[in-house]
Design a protein that fits this description.
The chain is mainly beta. The protein has a single domain, classed as TonB-dependent receptor, beta-barrel domain (Maltoporin, Chain A, Beta Barrel), CATH 2.40.170.20. The chain has a 22-stranded antiparallel barrel.
Length: 598
């Protein structure tokens, strides 16, 4: 791979400034424990040891952000582009490292959560109140997880309630929310309800503009429990979301739920193993002036894996998993398929070199087999500086819509002869700890995706035709110093459709975010977010101008477990669009009163 692009001047300036950061924190210990992640390798490892580009949004970050939905959390992250059609509850697309919205594998408590018809995930329906932690892994992970993980994997862990929490909030656009959570540490339940009066999802540039308020209602429930059994323990998780979303000249009703069981053996033995079983169901009913539609996904999955130490500094992991999924698009198609995969990985270190090797074989009922692999290495100059490099192969199986949709009056029909999309991705980077509580990560990546599926054949039938090449740079600087918490994240990318030479839609070439929080001695906090999104192109090569947003958040204890919390969104009242013809939040204030007792 040849990285022959030039970095923009602003990013070069920030990188240069980081290299010469003063050693402000060498003389203190931040006292913050190292997060442990499991998504990158399917085994536990400290975040600092990961050879993949991983970021974690934990419960503390979620509560400090006061984010009303996942859009406000995820758009702060490097390599993540968000496009939402309208206000809360509007259809939301997420692009990871410039890849398509169905090129990211979404797991919730280990269960695949995408729709069988489109391959996408309904980000707008997952309430942050029921989330404990989010792990974002950038780069292909097909060698461990199988199909869909071309751009990366995002795994969401539902909340593990402790004590009792009650929270009530209100904000602009008649945004009302209630949260109740109770748990013992080994078992817990969280319920969240949100109702938004809303605003018109479209403006005069929209294709179905109707100047009425479009509301959103969502009820979410998540529960978990842990039970010791024999020489291990059984983890149980379940979640539910139901409600409706209004949009100009239409409305959608949704219901999705999932449940999972995972048995894990106790660590410490020569072999550590686990087995899991999960089920997922999703239904979306939509009514428009053109008629009604119903899309249903059912998925049952199972898997097992084991790991053992090979000497003092390496481990072998291997496993097998499979899923059976069925989908229905009322009046169009009703199909099912299965996938079976086996995989193995070797992780470890030898002197100053860290390594990761993975290989996986998948058998899909519809298109056949696929072999994927991943090779990554790191070279530690010392305890605080490490060079990184990786090469990975990924693939994505065609969705049911792409395979079987009858189209509209003969156009935009599916194609049962489609091949899977495939990718090769390479990455080089570095990790640096200028001092305790400071972290720098820089990554340069290139992803080439072949056999991209597009509706471009005769009468716009689905065919394998397009090729994409995405080059990019990601930069992350994190600071934890005494009472200060801060993160600077920058992304520059060149998401190119190699057939047309045009940019891939809705992906900005430049984006960045800066968050800074001051944790107060009484348990409160004051914070700010600065988000900049560069120019993008939408359908028909319509140009979406760049925009910058400033958000503020705060929490203040009132005593007896009570806290007053709030968030000001879009403080400068910027008028902007995430997708052409769709409105977004103007300046908005959200306030909440919460009570917690442990």
């Amino acid at each position: 791979m040849m990285f022959n692009f030039k970095l923009p001047g602003p990013i070069l300036s920030v990188l240069a400034a980081t290299v010469f950061l003063p050693q402000l924190s060498l003389a203190y210990d931040d006292g913050v424990s190292e997060p442990v992640v499991v998504t990158a390798t399917r085994g536990e490892q400290p975040l600092a040891d990961s050879l993949a580009a991983v970021s974690v949004i934990d419960r503390e970050k979620i509560e400090r952000s006061q984010a009303p939905d996942l859009v406000e959390l995820l758009r702060l992250e490097a390599g993540v582009d968000i496009a939402r059609t309208g206000g809360p509850g509007g259809q939301t697309s997420l692009f990871l490292r410039g890849t398509n919205s169905n090129h990211v594998l979404v797991l919730i408590d280990g269960i695949r959560a995408s729709a069988a018809g489109t391959g996408g995930f309904a980000w707008e329906l997952l309430d942050p109140a029921i989330i404990e932690r989010i792990e974002i892994v950038r780069g292909p992970r097909a060698a461990r997880w199988g199909s869909d993980a071309i751009g990366g994997v995002i795994q969401i862990f539902t909340r593990q309630a402790r004590g009792v929490t009650l929270r009530a909030g209100y904000g602009r656009y008649r945004d009302r929310s209630l949260v109740a959570a109770a748990g013992t540490g080994t078992a817990g339940l969280t319920a969240a309800a949100r109702r938004v009066g809303g605003y018109s999802s479209q403006n005069e540039r929209g294709f179905a503009f109707d100047p009425d308020d479009d509301g959103f209602r969502n009820f979410s429930l998540a529960g978990s429990a842990r039970q010791p059994i024999g020489r291990g323990h059984l983890d149980i998780s379940a979640r539910l979301a139901r409600g409706d979303t209004e949009f100009d000249q239409g409305e959608s009703d949704f219901l999705n739920y999932a449940a999972g069981l995972t048995y894990l053996s106790d660590p410490g033995a020569d072999w550590h193993w686990q087995a899991s079983l999960g089920a997922h169901r999703d239904r979306l009913d939509t009514e428009t002036p053109f008629g009604q539609s119903e899309a249903v996904t059912r998925r049952l999955q199972a898997g097992t894996q084991a790991e053992t130490a090979l000497g003092a500094s390496s481990r072998l992991l291997f496993g097998a998993d499979g899923w059976q999924e069925s989908g229905v698009s009322r009046g169009s198609w009703a199909e099912s398929r299965y996938n079976i995969g086996v995989w193995a990985g070797l992780d470890g270190s030898r002197q100053a070199v860290d390594y990761e090797v993975s290989l996986r074989w998948d058998q899909d009922e519809l298109f056949g087999s696929a072999v994927t692999g991943n090779l990554a290495g790191g070279w530690r100059l010392n305890d605080d500086f490490r060079f990184l490099g990786s090469l990975g192969r990924g693939f994505r199986a065609p969705t049911f819509n792409q395979l079987f949709s009858p189209g509209f009056f003969g156009a935009f029909a599916g194609n049962p002869e489609l091949d899977p999309e495939t990718s090769w991705s390479t990455e080089i980077g570095l990790q640096w700890r200028p001092g305790h509580g400071q972290r720098v990560r820089l990554a340069l990546f290139e992803n080439r995706i072949d056999d991209l599926i597009d509706f471009a054949g005769v009468d716009f039938q689905a065919i394998n035709i397009r090729e994409a090449r995405i080059r990019g740079v990601e930069f992350h600087y994190g600071l934890t110093r005494d009472a200060w918490r801060g993160e600077l994240q920058l992304t520059w990318q060149d998401p190119e459709d190699r057939d047309s030479g045009l940019d891939l839609l809705r992906r900005a070439r430049e984006k960045g975010s800066l968050t800074l929080d001051r944790v107060l001695g009484n348990g409160g906090w004051l914070g700010a977010e600065l988000v900049h999104i560069g120019t993008r192109f939408d359908i028909g090569q319509a140009r979406l101008p760049a925009y910058t947003l400033l958000n503020l958040r705060a929490g203040w204890p009132l005593g007896q477990g009570l806290s007053l919390e709030g968030r000001v969104e879009n403080l400068t009242d910027r008028d902007y669009e995430q997708t052409i013809g769709f409105n977004t939040h103007r300046r908005s204030l959200f306030v909440a009163l919460s009570w917690t007792r442990f």
